[in-house]
Amino acid sequence: MPDIVDIAVNTEGFETLVTAVKAANLVDALKGEGPFTVFAPNDAAFAKLPPGTIQTLVQNVPQLARILTYHVVAGKLMKADLAKVNSVISLEGSPISIDCSDGFEVKNATVIAADVEADNGVIHVIDNVILMG
């Protein structure tokens, strides 16, 4: 089974995320044993950011890495697992609110594809980039 990075690289719609993960030097970490739960913004999610945001972040690697690790949680948490909690703690260290009462919401994002299994965890595709705070 492919790992989280392999799925992102080989799935249409994740070009921006893959570029950001490479720029932040997180490829090896996300290819690691894990398991990880990744809330993966698709290209349309990144396109919603203000113009120039992505270019600015790619030039500020520590901030980019912080934002990307906010989208990752330790452990393999399927939608059914997340439905039992109100929040999880990201690898960045901040909480991410979870709401499965009417659909599947992660902070300010809607999960548009849940439970994409990988060798080292699971991916939930989201429609917005989530930010700390």
Explained architecture:
The chain has 133 residues and is α+β, with helices and mostly antiparallel strands. The mean pLDDT is 96. Helix content is 34%, strand content 26%. The chain has a 7-stranded mixed beta sheet with strand order 2-1-7-6-5-4-3. Strand 6 and strand 7 (121-126) form a beta hairpin. The protein has helices spanning 4-10, 15-23, 27-30, 43-47, 53-59, 61-69, 79-82, and strands at 36-41, 72-74, 87-89, 95-99, 105-106, 109-118, 121-126.
Main attributes?
single chain; 133 residues; alpha+beta; 34% helix; 26% strand
Question: What is the secondary structure topology, with strand pairs?
Answer:
Elements: H1 4-10, H2 15-23, H3 27-30, E1 36-41, H4 43-47, H5 53-59, H6 61-69, E2 72-74, H7 79-82, E3 87-89, E4 95-99, E5 105-106, E6 109-118, E7 121-126
Parallel strand pairs: 1-7
Antiparallel strand pairs: 1-2, 3-4, 4-5, 5-6, 6-7
For the sheet with most strands, the description reads: 7 strands, mixed
Query: How many H/I helices?
Result: 7
The chain-level mean pLDDT equals: 96
Would you list the SSEs in sequence order as H and E?
Answer: HHHEHHHEHEEEEE
Indicate the percent of residues in helices.
25-40%
**Quaternary structure classification:** single chain
Percent of sequence in beta strands: 25-35%
Number of strands: 7
Instruction: Trace the largest sheet across and list its strands.
Output: 2-1-7-6-5-4-3
Overview in brief:
This protein has helices at residues 4-10, 15-23, 27-30, 43-47, 53-59, 61-69, 79-82, and strands at residues 36-41, 72-74, 87-89, 95-99, 105-106, 109-118, 121-126. The protein is α+β, with helices and mostly antiparallel strands and 133 residues long.
